[in-house]
């Protein structure tokens, strides 16, 4: 477990003779990384693993446990099926449901909240890649839908494996919410969202203190394999930058290892508002890391270098929302 308050923060922090540290808000968060989930693994088998991770995180003091993107199944967008209804069995119709109820029950019994990624089909038949945030009392805080859907819409048979997320999921029209939960301000993003600075800024502008992110990142990037060796670097780069530039904690959680022959990144991490990595996984298997997150550390950045109200210049940022692609000068 990482004690995520550096010595320089803890020494001599008194106000009118009271140790400010004892007043500080803390939230102990676990990143519950998963190793692969193979095609033949059932929801019930996966939920047994999730409960074991949850219990381990609880023993390590966690109040909030973050699981990966599409945690209940294998990363099925790696296969293309002409008739999409043949893929319906990868999607949840409700949450909780019979398979996941034991996870909800155990979390409530332990008084631990969690964030779970999965695929869902709603009542209108629309397909989403989502994360649901559950409070320590078992109540559902929110379900976030993935905004940036990477990969391709059509079958690309020349690839060694597909990344057809744009076939299997709609991009969320809802944007990035921030919720009052866990005595904090909590936001969510899913995998590819973490590569986009707008993701963090949208939440930063709502005062976010903790951003939760599950991911499945294949090491091999088919359109440009020169990026393969940089997967770990890019993963850390974007989450550290997003944390620092918005004065927020970021928790990134992988489903890693070799899943159905495709090697995926581990390197789950908990990043402080300073941009420093305070905990990181060492394996690509089921593994829990924990950090005691000082939520008041956020204001050190939000009230100084990144005092948005004082220093931002939205009047000269109109391109950010006014156009999608780059428009080159004449
Ligand atoms: N799941 C997901 O979004 N993965 C993407 C892979 C790269 S796009 C083929 C990611 O951004 O990690």
Structure explained in plain terms:
The structure is a single chain. By secondary structure, the chain is α/β, with parallel strands linked by helices. The protein has a single domain (14-322), classed as Carbon-nitrogen hydrolase (Nitrilase/N-carbamoyl-D-aminoacid amidohydrolase). 24% of the residues lie in helices and 25% in strands. The protein has ten helices and 17 strands. The protein has helices spanning 7-10, 20-23, 43-59, 101-110, 165-168, 197-204, 231-246, 297-302, 308-311, 318-322; strands spanning 2-3, 14-15, 18-19, 26-33, 64-66, 113-121, 127-134, 140-145, 178-181, 184-190, 210-215, 249-254, 257-259, 262-264, 269-271, 277-280, 287-294. The strands form four sheets. Strands 1-17-4-5-6-7-8 form a seven-stranded mixed β-sheet, covered by helices on one side. Strands 9-10-11-12-15-16 form a six-stranded mixed β-sheet, covered by helices on one side. A two-stranded antiparallel sheet has the order 2-3. β10, α6 and β11 (210-215) form a beta-alpha-beta unit. The longest helix is centred in the N-terminal third of the chain and has 17 residues, at 43-59. The relative contact order is 0.17. Bound molecules: 4-methylsulfanyl-2-ureido-butyric acid (CDT).
